[in-house]
């Protein structure tokens, strides 16, 4: 019925929240798709296309200059003159001057070219403005070696000594080509065409992706052509270069994860003329800046709608808020066990007017019945808990005894009489301790004696293959703990340490941390799986332990110990299972410190 307050509240909240969050979701996803498409496809690729056209135009002019020099008769006459030993030095000098004038004229015809220098294998270099010198130091340059040995024609931004002599301190980008042949190794002469790197950097610096994004010009090997050192801070982008070069796609978008764990967007475009790459890198958070602003606006809008919905709900539910408050207060008294206080908070209502009155009257009846049921249930649960604890305790002794009897049988067959006697003496002391079941608790000192007897049996069984150490705080010896909670853990630690290796190392440590007693057993075994740890943690949260009594799994000892501690301490007990200091498993039982003396 729609006139019911419950139905009206449900309809109002459904309609209001559906409209608000539906509007928010639609605006968010629609606007996000539009912004992503605008930034990545329109902005990035459009800017790269414009700059790519500029680079191709510049490269065409540089190759034109190289073609003029390569096919020039002046260069050929100069080479023939210097190669003829019969010609006098003056005629050779005249040929050098003619070549320099030719280079000056060629350089002046192309404004983008800073200089053209011709190098001769014998150590002579000639450039514009009648500059020439017999200086073979250029052969020691890295660019010369790469050109001669590997045929690499382009030199990234660098300082050129010849440019420095002409008072040009800027970095240059250079094209290297042989003269007279197309094979660098066979050429006696080569040309080096320098172009200021600022010629390419200046228009590139005006292109931005977002606020912090940058576009880089890379060569075929993925190195920065223009000396943009910011590219070194993106090693994750350099790892993608080989895949990009081998790809047939001319452009694309790749999402990367940087060293800080944040996402970067890399946009690339291949230049056809000389296999260069334009790579733009922008942080995802920068690119989505407008999306974050939109999200904030949507959150504010949604918050206003939610405030309005809450105000309307308060107005509609005012007629039942007071009775519900009393009912909630009564429930809190019931939660604390004060049934009288709960009945006082909920006065008797002779007439049932609506759903709230009906719930209140029903709750009063429930409180009176809970008195009897809780008392009965508590007594039954206590008896059951005591029976479960005794059953779990009795499960430990047979399990250990069978293992020890098997060891005695093996020692007897080997005629190791002294070891047999030692095992029997240690077993006798352990059995004498375990048969005293009048108390479920024992001082820590007695439990450690029991552990030492067990350790002596293990030492006889495994000899030098077992290294078991016990570290204890003598001030904690009088603390009281449940019986037999260390021996099963040590047994498991030894078992799993020998599972995949010849030697076992086990450390038993007893320490205090604030008001908690921490018992730790660490080994160098195979370690515990995440599934098993989650299963043990889930079992510790339940109060049903019948499956532990029936189980035949290899973790019976560990489960038994955890179950008994959980039964005795309840929420005061906790445990940790982590990778240990010995590279295996470290199991820590965290118990509340309890002192006193018991007759054990």
UniProtKB/TrEMBL annotation:
It is a multi-pass membrane protein. It comes from the Bacteria. PROSITE patterns: HAMP. InterPro entries: Bact_2-comp_sensor_kinase, HAMP_dom, HATPase_C_sf, HATPase_dom, Sig_transdc_His_kin_internal. It holds the Pfam family HATPase_c. Keywords: Cell membrane, Kinase, Membrane, Phosphoprotein, Transferase, Transmembrane, Transmembrane helix. It is found in: Cell membrane. It comes from Paenibacillus anseongense. This is HAMP domain-containing protein. The keyword Kinase applies. Residues 318-375 form the HAMP domain. The chain crosses the membrane at residues 9-29, 298-316.
């Amino acid at each position: 019925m729609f006139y019911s307050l419950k139905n009206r509240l449900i309809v109002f909240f459904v309609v209001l929240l559906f409209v608000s969050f539906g509007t928010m979701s639609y605006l968010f996803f629609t606007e996000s798709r539009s912004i992503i498409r605008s930034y990545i496809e329109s902005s990035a690729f459009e800017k790269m296309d414009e700059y790519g056209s500029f680079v191709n135009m510049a490269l065409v002019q540089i190759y034109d200059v190289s073609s003029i020099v390569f096919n020039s008769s002046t260069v050929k006459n100069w080479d023939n003159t210097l190669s003829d030993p019969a010609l006098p030095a003056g005629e050779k000098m005249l040929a050098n001057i003619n070549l320099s004038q030719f280079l000056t004229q060629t350089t002046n015809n192309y404004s983008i070219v800073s200089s053209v220098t011709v190098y001769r294998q014998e150590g002579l270099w000639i450039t514009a403005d009648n500059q020439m010198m017999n200086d073979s130091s250029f052969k020691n340059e890295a660019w010369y070696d790469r050109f001669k040995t590997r045929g690499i024609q382009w030199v990234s931004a660098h300082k050129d000594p010849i440019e420095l002599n002409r008072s040009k301190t800027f970095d240059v980008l250079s094209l290297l080509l042989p003269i007279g042949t197309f094979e660098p190794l066979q050429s006696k002469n080569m040309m080096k065409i320098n172009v200021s790197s600022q010629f390419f950097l200046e228009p590139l610096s005006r292109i931005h992706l977002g606020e912090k994004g940058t576009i880089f010009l890379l060569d075929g090997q993925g190195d920065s052509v223009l000396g943009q050192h910011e590219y070194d801070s993106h090693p994750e982008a350099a790892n993608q270069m080989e895949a990009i070069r081998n790809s047939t796609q001319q452009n694309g978008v790749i999402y990367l994860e940087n060293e800080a764990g944040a996402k970067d967007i890399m946009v690339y475009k291949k230049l056809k003329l000389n296999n260069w790459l334009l790579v733009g890198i922008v942080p995802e958070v920068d690119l989505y800046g407008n999306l974050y602003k939109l999200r904030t606006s949507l959150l504010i809008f949604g918050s206003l709608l939610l405030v309005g919905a809450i105000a309307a709900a308060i107005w509609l539910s005012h007629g039942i808020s007071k009775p519900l408050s009393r009912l909630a207060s009564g429930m809190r008294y019931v939660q604390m066990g004060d049934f009288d206080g709960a009945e006082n908070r909920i006065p008797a209502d002779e007439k049932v007017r609506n759903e709230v009155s009906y719930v209140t009257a029903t709750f009063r009846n429930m409180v009176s019945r809970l008195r009897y049921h809780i008392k009965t249930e508590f007594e039954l649960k206590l008896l059951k808990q005591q029976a479960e604890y005794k059953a779990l305790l009795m499960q430990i002794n047979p399990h250990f005894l069978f293992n020890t009897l098997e060891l005695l049988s093996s020692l007897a067959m080997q005629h190791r009489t002294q070891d047999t006697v030692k095992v029997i003496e240690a077993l006798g002391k352990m059995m004498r301790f375990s048969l005293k079941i009048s108390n479920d608790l024992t001082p820590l000192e007695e439990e450690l004696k029991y552990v030492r007897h067990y350790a002596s049996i293990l030492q006889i069984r495994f000899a030098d293959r077992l290294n078991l150490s016990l570290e204890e705080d003598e001030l904690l010896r009088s603390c009281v703990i449940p019986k037999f909670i260390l021996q099963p853990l040590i047994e498991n630690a030894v078992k799993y340490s020998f599972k995949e290796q010849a030697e076992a190392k086990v450390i038993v440590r007893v320490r205090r941390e604030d008001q908690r007693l921490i018992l730790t057993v660490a080994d160098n075994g195979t370690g515990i799986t995440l599934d098993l740890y989650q299963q043990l943690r889930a079992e510790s949260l339940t109060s049903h332990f019948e499956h532990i009594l029936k189980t035949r799994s290899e973790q019976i000892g560990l489960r038994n110990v955890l179950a008994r501690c959980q039964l005795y301490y309840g929420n005061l007990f906790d445990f940790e299972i982590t990778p240990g200091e010995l590279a295996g498993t470290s199991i820590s039982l965290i118990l509340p410190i309890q002192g006193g003396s018991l007759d054990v």
